Prior knowledge:
This protein has 195 residues and is an alpha+beta fold. It is 27% helix and 33% strand. The protein has two domains: 7-65, lambda repressor-like DNA-binding domains (434 Repressor (Amino-terminal Domain), Orthogonal Bundle); 75-187, Jelly Rolls (Sandwich). The chain is built from five helices and ten strands, in the order H-H-H-H-H-E-E-E-E-E-E-E-E-E-E.
Amino acid sequence: MASPPTPIAAHVTHTVKRLRRERAWSLDRAAVETGVSKAMLGQIERGESSPTVSTLWKIASGFRVSFSSLFDSGAATREALECDQHVPVWGEDSVGMQARLLFPFDPLLGFEMFMIELAPHALSESAPHAAGVVEHIVVVEGELQFCLDGQWQSLKEGEGLRFLADRPHAMRNATEKRLRFHDVIHYLPGAASGS
Length: 195
């Protein structure tokens, strides 16, 4: 018997269905716009598949919404922060990555913020995000190996970088120690809506 979906997985399922319905897109159209197969989108909408972070980014870019809107309504995060509870976390055990939402997308300021953790020797590869998405990364603990345009560079604790995220990029932890970094995602005007 399958275990019930987590609140975050249920929110992803509901949000993808709602976004497609609001735009009156068929699964075929949604697949073209997002670059995610029709079969995978159907599985996500039925709650039969837990999408990877890379797949979530493709969906967010295709629907032109913020990344955090796919797995958090914003109200849940504000309530959790006010009550000092845990905020939403999206994890990928197969990759060794965990994304904890610190601040949901704010349409007025055009940004959202995550704490990302990569297990030792974990690699996370991202497809290009929508045009107008800028990421700011600051290493909090450990050492981050970052690749953009085929060029790897190393960032140590306290160091950061900013880059246009409309290109493939990758992050890895090449050490035996835990790696944690802040990822502030800034959406230039028109790059995303909050819904």
